[in-house]
Please model this.
Amino acid sequence: MNAGMLKYLTVLTACLPALAWAASVSVSPADLPRGSASLPLLAGELERLSAGREPLRLVSDAAAPTFSDADNLDQGLRGERDPFAHLPEDVSGRQPPRHVAIVGPAEQAQRAAALLAERAEARGIRLSTHAADQRAIDAISAADVALILALPEQDADVQRDWFAALNAAGVPSVALSDPIQVEHGALLSLPGAVDEAAWLRRLALRLDDRAAGRAPEALDAWPTQGREWLNLATARRLGWSPDFALLTRARLLEASRGDDIAEAQQEGALSLEQAVAVALSGNLRLEIARHEVETEALDRDEAGSRWRPNLYLEATGREIDEQRAALGLGQQPQRRATAGVTLEQLLFSEPALAAMAVTASLDRARRAELEVESLDLALDTAREFLDALRLEAQVEVLREDLELTEANLRQAERREAAGAVGREERLRFESERAQARERLDQAEAQREQLTLALNRRLGRAATAPLSPLAPDTDRPEWLAADPRFAAAVRSPAQLAAWQEALLDNALRDSRELRALAAGREAAQRELVSRRRAFWAPEVGLQVSYERELYRDGSGDSAPWESDDAQLQAGVAVLEDAGVSFPETGSDEWSVAISARLPLYAGGRRSLDRERSARQLESVTLREEEARQGLETQLRAASIALAAAWRRIGLRETSRDNAVAARALVESAWREGAAEQVALLDAQASARQAQLAEVEARWQYLQSLVHLQRALGILPGPLSPTDRERLLAASS
Model:
């Protein structure tokens, strides 16, 4: 082996450890919200960063240097991560909760308790810390709310089992850091929970820096989800009904693994409440509207930015003709370069003040309109769901009618064979069977068509099985079983009084009127601004400083700055006599306050004022029209609801009597004591009575969901709070 080869091998052997280190990078599980479950996602981010290079090999090492803990407690628990500021008031059945359990690794739980101690004491809340294991469930069950830290050491199955036990104990659980816990069975997450994808992207950048030998930046900014996650299945299990504002802004999850409801959904079974929740959580149009609201909310920040100072750095290079420079006495050299800084601050501006108020009002209007759109989507879903139930019930009635007709046809065939009746009786039953099949086929086709439309609205496959679960209208949450409802619709006078009470609630809580009122406020403020534009000036402050960097050419100095001894002697005499000569090239500064008032703008200000006045009038008229429409909608829905409720009892009686009459006539016909015409008439009467009873029941539910929509209540079974709101004035 020659000396060159020996030298090469020696260098290669020395570099092998460094090469091995550069090809892999270690990460502490404490940096990952979900521990090892986040490693594949992080590896994918590192692979994208490789950009043609050999991807780094990711190694999980608890001893690796960490960038942050999985709960980011170094940043505190304030703002979006303050549980006391963002927990719904009634989440624990108390307002507010009195005992909060902090659950997680011992060290993290103690740190979180220390961060929250002062605020908890001010609110009269007791804090306790617990480990996230089955043995701690009994101790945690004494708390009103469990605040759950990140659990990177527990995999998804362990977390699901643990949350199932916690939910069985009746304790609402709130994810502080890891929103994926909501998928595993936690009730909800805080809006400041970690955005795992963004977190892993930032972590991957720093790991790549570390592997390349660069100093990684600190992870001091926590990427957050910006909105809550809510598990509706857990909410139902705990008997908690979230308010509409939370349902509108939160990401809704329907169920967790092992849940009976989830299994029912896989088989296509859905309740009305579940259908509405799925539609709200997965509707792309609604998600687009949410993004547009958040984007347009930036207008408010932009309007406020006018009141913040503007700072400019300026650099200027200029060259003028030699003759003009020579005549400038050193104040305008032929070639000159300067640099300066300018600060501008708006002190008063009526348009800027108006813009802040107008954009704030428009933001409120847009958010109210988003709630209106959510309510409309929920109503459309509920209507289609109830139509599907109505058709399902009709199919059952028509199928039973067909079976009965076929049984009568077989009896007629036997009687014809025995010579007891003629051929015409069998033919009449065959004709009736064909009509019964046609009615059944038509109802089944309508049901299938509606299933396709409802699956699309729910974001499911068009051919996915769908078995809508019929509501039990005899339960109080559907209003009919509540005696106060019967009292409210007992007489026209009581119905009118109930309508007035409902109307007061509707006008006070209407999202449509809230949106229009915010729009009216914006139009009013804009009109005021247009009127003030005739006399309100714009006042601003400007501070500037300029330094000369370079001068050259003709006129680069003043005559009195010449080196000539005789000239300087004369300058000295004049200065002694009190004459001052300016120094060329000195720094310059200025402070200015300006007020600007346009006197004439071609008539545009008058046109703007007139346009704003008409816009305000238009918004006011739309608000009054919406008020009248809401009143009409509410009164019509309440009248239809009362009428449908009364019809249910009448049609149930009619159905029972018609079915009993059909049975009697059928028995008599089989014994030869009744004519075929009487049997067919009794059969048609029973069928119509059964269909009418079905129609009355679904008309009642349709009227109820329309009344809920008019009152701004999410269509579905009424919570005790909503039921109290509807019926408090009836007693």
Confidence is low (pLDDT under 50) at residues 1-22, 255-267. Residues 276 and 378 are 5 Å apart (CA to CA).
